[in-house]
């Protein structure tokens, strides 16, 4: 299954760099490029890419707004935010806009490629350094009332949710709870369905916004 | 015409001189007059008791302390009165008969009444009255009435000084406020320059960080696709990537520290001359129509220069919008060999030709300085205001 990628960045050299980087991977193909937010929205609609690499700072329409519009049109779109600066506000807003992940342009190529694959697979991604800061930011922001759907979660599912909120991967959760990774995945799917969430990052957001789980450290 | 001006200037200088040194001149005249009085008067009723060799110098000595009133505003008049009292022990008539001493005494009493420090002023009054009573007592020709009426005159002088004290204090306060305001203005100007420099620094760091970021990305992409047989090349490129990431980390830290608390993070890239059209549109909508003229062969400017060129146009137009009350503005970009000239012209009220010292063009001045260019700003020959800058474009076009 080829991962089809749309690269949206106002700097042509960045687009060229990603073309070079992703073009060498057998399962990834860059199908479209955009130089600003407006083009990005148009290209996304036209090409329906698997993953959209979206720069935040673009002329005419910025990447955050473009992300919102793309997701408004297609809820299942997967947007990986690119940036030079990992400012907390960017990350927070990107996640609120519905992005699936957040990477820095100068992250090592291996990480960038892995990020594309992770997001394509439906798993949301935040680099560990960013996760902690994001969690801090969410606990700072005002608490929301927990949705009553939380009560529908089984005890096991609550355990899994707690560990997701701590930024653990499925494999790590399996180790913690002495269950198989497949079982973890099933629990995760159920949790997302019951709480009507798009991906595990949204689950983290919800957990901290409702103050269910305090961030450690 | 020249002589009238010359005379006017001379009179002006004379009045300034009179204000500063007038009293000193009077004191000197009084001293001289005192000597003459002592030496020349021969009315037996009004002659000092001692010989002229004592009386003349003594009279001068009593009067002269007034010359020290600027440095010793309290001590000088007090010394005058103390001397007067002392001299009266030696020559009881001298103080009373010499008119110049009277004059000096009145002035001294006035100065004491004028003393800023109320306590000192009152002490001065005591000294004056006390000294006078001594002088009157030592006068062989005294009458009982003298004890009351002679001091009274000097007390009135003291009161006059006291009454004018209020006004003198106010004048001093006003001068202090003016000096303070001047210091505040200078301080605010320095602060504005510092803030503008910080803003420029932030922007330039931003431009550089983006450039380095792209470098790291590209180098990483190349390094990633190198076959493992080229291990040395890969290692070299890894080194470049690390260096780039370290540099970026430093710049992120610096920019994080330099960001002002009230600033929202940027959602648009740093602008350049390619965004002039939207800027001009905004300015036109704000009430000042702008025309754009481009001369010469257009070429893309390096990032930081491009940004500064944009900012120069932006500041120039903002200045025109705010101050010029103009009807039309013109922006001219002239591309030359190794340089670009930017001119912002409006047809409004001109400003002073102070080369952008006012805050409005402060940023322009700083940016031009950074790139080693030149700028002039002032009233145009045909009216209105023109901001003219030249930015050299370095090698590596």
Report what the structure shows.
- Chain A is built from ten helices and six strands; from the N terminus they run βαβαβαβαβαβααααα.
- Chain A has helices at 12-23, 37-47, 63-73, 88-97, 109-120, 128-140, 155-165, 170-177, 181-195, 200-209, and strands spanning 3-8, 28-34, 51-55, 79-83, 101-104, 125-126.
- A six-stranded parallel beta sheet of chain A has the order 2-1-3-4-5-6, with helices on both faces.
- In chain A, helix 1 links the parallel strand 1 and strand 2.
- Chain B has 397 residues and is an alpha+beta fold.
- Helices cover 64% and strands 9% of the residues of chain B.
- Chain B is built from eleven helices and five strands.
- A five-stranded mixed beta sheet of chain B has the order 1-2-3-5-4, covered by helices on one side.
- In chain B, helix 3 runs antiparallel to helix 5 (99-113), helix 6 (118-138) packs antiparallel against helix 7 and helix 7 (146-225) runs antiparallel to helix 8.
- The A-B interface holds A 10-11, 13-14, 16-18, 20-21, 24, 56-59, 62-65, 84-87, 89-90, 104-106, 108-110 and B 209-210, 212-214, 216-218, 220-225, 241, 244-245, 248, 252, 255-256, 264-269, 275.
Describe the protein's topology.
The complex is a heterodimer of chains A (217) and B (397).
Chain A: E1 3-8, H1 12-23, E2 28-34, H2 37-47, E3 51-55, H3 63-73, E4 79-83, H4 88-97, E5 101-104, H5 109-120, E6 125-126, H6 128-140, H7 155-165, H8 170-177, H9 181-195, H10 200-209
Parallel strand pairs in A: 1-2, 1-3, 3-4, 4-5, 5-6
Helix pairs in contact in A: 2-3, 3-4, 7-9, 7-10, 8-9
Chain B: H1 2-40, H2 52-63, H3 75-90, H4 94-97, H5 99-113, H6 118-138, H7 146-225, H8 231-258, H9 276-285, E1 290-295, H10 303-324, E2 329-336, E3 339-346, H11 362-370, E4 374-379, E5 385-392
Parallel strand pairs in B: 1-2
Antiparallel strand pairs in B: 2-3, 3-5, 4-5
Helix pairs in contact in B: 1-2, 1-5, 2-3, 3-5, 3-6, 5-7, 6-7, 7-8, 7-11, 10-11
């Amino acid at each position: 299954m080829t991962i089809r990628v749309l690269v949206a960045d106002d700097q042509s050299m960045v687009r060229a760099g990603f073309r070079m980087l992703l073009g060498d991977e057998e399962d990834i193909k860059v199908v479209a490029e955009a130089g600003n937010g407006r083009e990005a929205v148009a290209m996304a609609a036209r090409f329906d890419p698997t993953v959209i690499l979206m720069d935040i700072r673009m002329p005419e329409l910025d990447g955050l707004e473009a992300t919102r519009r793309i997701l408004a049109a297609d809820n299942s779109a997967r947007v990986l935010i690119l940036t030079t600066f990992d400012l907390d506000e960017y990350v927070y807003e990107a996640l609120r806009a519905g992005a699936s992940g957040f990477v820095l342009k100068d992250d090592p190529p291996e990480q960038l490629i892995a990020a594309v694959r992770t997001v394509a697979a439906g798993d949301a991604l935040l680099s560990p350094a960013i996760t902690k800061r994001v969690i801090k930011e969410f606990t700072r922001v005002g608490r929301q009332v927990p949705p009553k759907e939380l009560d529908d979660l089984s005890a096991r599912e609550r355990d899994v949710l707690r560990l997701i909120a701590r930024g653990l991967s499925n494999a790590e959760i399996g180790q913690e709870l002495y269950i198989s990774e497949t079982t973890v995945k099933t629990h995760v799917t159920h949790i997302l369905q019951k709480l009507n969430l798009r991906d595990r990052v949204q689950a983290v957001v919800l957990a901290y916004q409702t103050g269910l789980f305090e961030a450690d450290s | 015409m020249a002589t009238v001006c010359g005379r006017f200037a001379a009179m002006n200088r004379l009045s300034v001189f009179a204000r500063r040194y007038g009293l000193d001149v009077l004191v000197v005249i009084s001293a001289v007059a005192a000597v003459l009085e002592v030496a020349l008067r021969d009315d037996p009723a009004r002659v000092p008791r001692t010989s002229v060799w004592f009386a003349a110098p003594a009279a001068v000595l009593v009067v002269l302390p007034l010359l020290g009133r600027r440095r010793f505003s309290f001590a000088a008049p007090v010394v005058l009165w103390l001397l007067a009292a002392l001299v009266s022990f030696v020559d009881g008539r001298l103080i009373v008969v010499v008119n110049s001493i009277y004059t000096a005494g009145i002035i001294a009493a006035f100065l004491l009444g004028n003393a800023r420090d109320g306590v000192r002023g009152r002490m001065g009054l005591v000294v004056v009255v006390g000294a006078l009573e001594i002088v009157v007592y030592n006068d062989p020709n005294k009458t009982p009435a003298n004890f009351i009426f002679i001091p009274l005159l000097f007390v009135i002088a003291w009161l006059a000084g006291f009454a004018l004290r209020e006004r003198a204090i106010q004048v001093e306060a006003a001068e202090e406020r003016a000096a303070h305001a001047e210091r505040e203005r200078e301080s605010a100007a320095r602060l504005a320059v510092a803030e503008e420099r910080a803003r420029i620094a932030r922007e330039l760091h931003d431009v550089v960080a983006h450039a380095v970021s792209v470098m790291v990305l590209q180098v990483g992409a190349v390094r990633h696709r190198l076959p493992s047989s080229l291990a040395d090349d890969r290692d070299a490129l890894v080194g470049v990537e690390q260096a780039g990431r370290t540099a970026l980390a430093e710049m992120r830290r610096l920019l994080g520290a330099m960001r002002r608390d009230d600033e929202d993070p940027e959602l648009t890239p740093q602008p350049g001359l390619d965004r002039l059209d939207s800027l001009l549109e905004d300015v036109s909508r704000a009430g000042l129509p702008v025309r754009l003229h481009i001369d010469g062969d257009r070429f893309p400017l390096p990032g930081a220069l491009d940004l500064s060129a944009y900012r120069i146009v932006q500041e120039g137009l903002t200045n025109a919008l705010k101050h010029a009350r103009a009807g039309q503005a013109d922006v001219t970009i002239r591309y030359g060999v190794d340089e670009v000239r930017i001119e912002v012209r409006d047809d409004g009220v001109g400003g002073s030709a102070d080369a952008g010292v006012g805050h409005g063009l402060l940023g322009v001045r700083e940016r031009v300085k950074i790139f080693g260019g030149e700028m002039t700003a002032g009233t145009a020959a045909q009216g209105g205001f023109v901001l003219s800058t030249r930015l050299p474009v370095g090698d590596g076009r």
